[in-house]
């Protein structure tokens, strides 16, 4: 079978070739941890160089990929495809809080996994921060025989599914590379499945990697169907399999019972309305706007994936066409292609997304930090304004630089990531302080000595408080030679999905470069546009993944 076509019974004439090829490129990028040269993509996919160039150009125009020199790089906005699956299946939203509570109660990592199709894919993680901690990410795929949830899911397999698993026991590129050989756990899988069927729970005794142990239970819906599994994961330095079972199983049973009650409960009367489609995807740009390298059928096919989401878990063809603005025939061919590749399942006249959508780079992108998300946008900002740009977060009453892109000048500001400055005397710090609730801001500044760092530094607490209030309303801060003589900087906030200020961006320059008024007029629009792009990526990446700020 061709590596570009993995599934089912859709006639070749019904598939959309550009969509098949575009998804092949995305899979190869995901397998390479998010970056690969265009030449390597040609070799890996077997596609012509001109085809790869057009696919990369289309994905870049859609915001899913960046082309950096000769490399294609996955961009955070691609996570909107995985978000569509996660929000449509509702498991992270409904059961994530219960899993988080179990992790807090046991002080162990907890995972939620779903079957895909003879493997196991993670949809929620509640890890513990330790020297030896869980490294699996949302979207990661494991062979069923290598983890505790796999034995639970296999209890419901038909004979044909078992036969498929036996055939699949050779190495499969879809599975994440593991330290053990690919056959590890296969010989004992059937007996472990039988034991899981009898007990109602299963264990993983170092099958994934040495030292890692887990216990899992299935979560069933109102019809008795296994929907997912919840696992408690620990290390042999903390528990044996027996002690983990004794410690975790009672709490795990309670959590699973509560999860099943949540799934069985009727939808509340005030349930939220179906969420809106991402605006840029609801109407893919026509070719005349995007250029000759734009493959419209690829963009349309990816837009079909975003037709699904909260309140839109299963849709008929007509609803998909209406949601995307596509002709019914176009939507139908895209759905059949996605079904052919395993990204969509069909039951009677209804279509739904499958967990395989998460293989399109979600795991890699979910591990990005906020500075990694911001850096490409800072690079573009510096190229635009020809002055250095930075990102910082608040640490106590100081700022800490977490990303910086310098400009090349004879006289420039020499600051590196990790550098700290007093927040009260910097544009970044004032934006961050202005974004805090009043009581928290007062607590951070209580007793703080406002030392004069230059003859311009504001050292009056009352005056600083008034400045912070005005900055909060204006949405930016300009600091003129208060940190260092001759240094002028302008900063704006970066907000998360809930509207909280989590970081700040600034442009800094020597005061001789621009007057304060010129800095506002020339830099503020570009700085705000950059912050908006960072926020858009952060909102996509942080919807279900925990994005670290450093």
Which short descriptors sum up this protein?
single chain, 550 residues, alpha+beta, Arc Repressor Mutant, subunit A, Beta-Lactamase, 6-stranded antiparallel beta sheet, 20 helices, 18 strands, 19% strand, disordered N terminus
List strands and helices in order, with pairings.
Elements: H1 17-31, E1 35-37, H2 38-45, H3 49-61, E2 65-68, E3 71-74, H4 79-89, H5 91-106, E4 109-115, E5 119-126, E6 141-143, H6 148-154, H7 159-167, H8 189-199, E7 202-205, E8 212-220, E9 226-235, H9 241-264, H10 279-282, H11 287-290, H12 296-305, E10 315-316, H13 317-324, H14 328-340, E11 344-347, E12 350-353, H15 362-366, H16 370-385, E13 388-395, E14 398-405, E15 420-422, H17 427-434, H18 438-445, H19 461-474, E16 477-480, E17 487-495, E18 501-510, H20 516-541
Antiparallel strand pairs: 1-3, 2-3, 4-5, 4-9, 5-6, 7-8, 8-9, 10-12, 11-12, 13-14, 13-18, 14-15, 16-17, 17-18
GO biological process, one term: negative regulation of DNA-templated transcription
Domain IclR-ED: 77-265, 356-540
Protein name: Glycerol operon regulatory protein
């Amino acid at each position: 079978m061709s590596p570009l076509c993995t599934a089912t019974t859709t006639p070749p004439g019904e598939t959309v070739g550009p969509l098949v090829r575009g998804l092949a490129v995305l899979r190869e990028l995901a397998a390479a941890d998010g970056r690969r040269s265009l030449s390597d993509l040609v070799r890996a996919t077997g596609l012509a160089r001109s085809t790869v160039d057009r696919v990369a150009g289309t994905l870049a125009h859609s915001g899913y990929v960046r082309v950096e020199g000769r490399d294609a790089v996955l961009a955070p906005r691609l996570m909107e495809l995985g978000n569509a699956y996660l929000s449509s299946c509702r498991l992270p939203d409904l059961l994530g809080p219960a899993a988080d509570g179990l992790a807090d109660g046991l002080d162990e990592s907890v995972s939620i996994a779903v079957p895909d199709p003879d493997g196991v894919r993670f949809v929620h993680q509640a890890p513990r921060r330790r020297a030896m901690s869980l490294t699996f990410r949302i979207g990661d795929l494991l062979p069923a025989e290598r983890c505790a949830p796999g034995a639970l899911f296999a209890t419901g397999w038909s004979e044909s599914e078992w036969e498929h698993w036996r055939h699949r026991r050779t190495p499969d590129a879809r599975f994440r590379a593991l330290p053990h050989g690919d056959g590890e756990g296969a010989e004992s899988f059937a007996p472990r499945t039988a034991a899981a069927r009898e007990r109602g729970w299963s264990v993983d005794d170092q099958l994934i990697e040495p030292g890692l142990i887990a216990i899992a239970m299935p979560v069933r819906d109102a019809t008795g169907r296994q929907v997912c599994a919840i696992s408690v994961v620990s290390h042999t330095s903390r528990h044996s399999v027996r002690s983990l079972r004794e410690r975790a199983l009672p709490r795990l049973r309670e959590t699973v019972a509560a999860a099943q009650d949540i799934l069985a409960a009727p939808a509340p009367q005030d349930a939220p309305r179906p969420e809106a489609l991402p605006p840029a995807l609801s109407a893919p740009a026509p070719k005349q706007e995007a250029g000759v390298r734009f493959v419209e059928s690829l963009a349309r096919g990816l837009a079909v994936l975003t037709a699904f989401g909260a309140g839109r878990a299963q849709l008929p063809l007509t609803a998909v066409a209406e949601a995307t603005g596509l002709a019914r025939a176009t939507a139908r061919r895209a759905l059949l292609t996605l079904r052919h590749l395993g990204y969509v399942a069909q039951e009677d006249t209804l279509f739904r997304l499958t967990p395989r959508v998460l293989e399109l780079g979600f795991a890699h992108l979910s591990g990005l930090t906020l500075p990694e998300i911001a850096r490409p946008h800072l690079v573009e900002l510096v190229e635009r304004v020809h002055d250095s740009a930075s990102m910082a977060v608040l640490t106590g009453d100081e700022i800490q630089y977490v990303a910086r892109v310098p400009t090349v000048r004879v006289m420039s500001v020499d600051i590196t990531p990790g550098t700290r400055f007093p927040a009260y005397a910097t544009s970044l710090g004032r934006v961050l302080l202005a974004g805090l609730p009043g009581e928290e801001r007062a607590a951070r500044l209580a007793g703080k000595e406002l030392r004069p760092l230059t003859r311009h530094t504001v050292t009056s607490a009352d005056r600083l408080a008034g400045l912070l209030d005005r900055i909060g309303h204006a949405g930016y801060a300009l600091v003129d030679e208060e940190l260092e003589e001759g240094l002028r900087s302008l900063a704006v906030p970066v907000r998360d999905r809930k509207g909280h200020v989590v970081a700040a961006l600034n442009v800094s320059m020597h005061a001789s470069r621009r007057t304060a008024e010129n800095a506002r007029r020339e830099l503020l629009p570009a700085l705000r546009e950059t912050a908006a792009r960072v926020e858009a990526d952060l909102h996509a990446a942080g919807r279900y993944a925990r994005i670290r700020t450093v």
